[in-house]
Amino acid sequence: MAYVVTEACIKCKYTDCVEVCPVDCFYEGPNCLVIDPDECIDCTLCVAECPVNAIYAEDDLPEDQRQFSALNAELCKVFKCIVEKKDPPADADDWKEVKNKLHLLEKEFPPGEDERNYPGGSRDEKDEDGLTGLDKLLMR
Known about the structure:
This protein is of the alpha+beta class.
């Protein structure tokens, strides 16, 4: 059973949880974090660190947050691993109490801010086998 980052993280993206994770299973997107369910060791350390209570054990997800289990598994494949605490967005506190933020989830970085975690390091540059980082990601 892995832990899951839910809707409360969207537009807040506090990274206190990252600092306590012993296995570096957090991945950073443009406006939220996700947990790689294959890397999470169920240590529970991140849960208490999240200032917006966005992290749940998969078995304890509220009914209206269950889709985040699949979203975490999907997005950890393209977001970049984050291993150190960062400052939250300037307007994070404005979003702490906001509900129903799923429509605000950004799955891709804006042009010029592409920090996705493509295998081989580049989305479009081809390696010696003629494969791009995106090709390799899709083959996983």
